[in-house]
Amino acid sequence: MTAAALGAWLVFEDEAGISMTPPKARTWSRRGITPVIRVRGRSRRRISIAALACYRPGHRSRLIYRARYDDGDRRRRKSFAWTDYRDLLTAAHQQLGGPIVLIWDNLNTHLPVGIRKFTAERDWLHVYQLPPYAPDLNPVEGIWSLLRRGPLANTAFTNPDHLARTLRTGLRAIQYRSDLIDGCLTGTGLTRNTT
């Protein structure tokens, strides 16, 4: 069955890790003067983000995300556990107010027994796996590209809080621009009419 036949939201999920080291991007400068951005030192602190790009014909596209902050404690988990994905999907269902057809990759935290049992017990949730090595089919990859070319590009973060604020501001700006979220879907070769 398709998402349209179910009256469901077509939801793509992906995760990314953002570090204190700024991504490089092109910039403008005066002729003969190469711009230099000094970074005070490399930090191992990262922010892990899981994002959902949500599409439904006749509705505005949505972006839902959760971040997991690394506090520097090596004993704690730095990335998302299956329980974090469970909580994210439950929150998305409440926000979207309808059934969900979820499409995500074969990440090891998407495959444990706990998450498979959770998805099987929910009649509002249908899960499909993307083929291996197919990031070009996931519109959330376009969201990461927008962030890395936009607010994160060429920024020397002073501390982890500065990184978190910049990331949050960039994601909120994308959330309010459904045309950007639609553009990420179009970049995969799909359109809103085919979802």
SSE succession:
HEEEHEHEHHH
Compute the average pLDDT: 84
Runs in which pLDDT lies below 50 for 5 or more consecutive residues are none
Q: Which sheet architecture does the biggest sheet show?
A: 5 strands, mixed
CATH architecture label:
2-Layer Sandwich
InterPro entries: RNaseH_sf (IPR036397), Tc1-like_DDE_dom (IPR038717)
Protein name: Transposase
Organism: Streptomyces morookaense
GO molecular function, one term: nucleic acid binding
Overview of the molecule:
This protein has a single domain (3-20, 44-186), classed as 2-Layer Sandwich (Nucleotidyltransferase, domain 5), CATH 3.30.420.10. Helix content is 32%, strand content 20%. It is built from six helices and five strands. It is of the alpha/beta class. The mean pLDDT is 84. Strands 3-2-1-4-5 form a five-stranded mixed beta sheet, with helices on both faces. This is Transposase. Residues 10-159 form the Tc1-like transposase DDE domain. InterPro entries: RNaseH_sf, Tc1-like_DDE_dom.
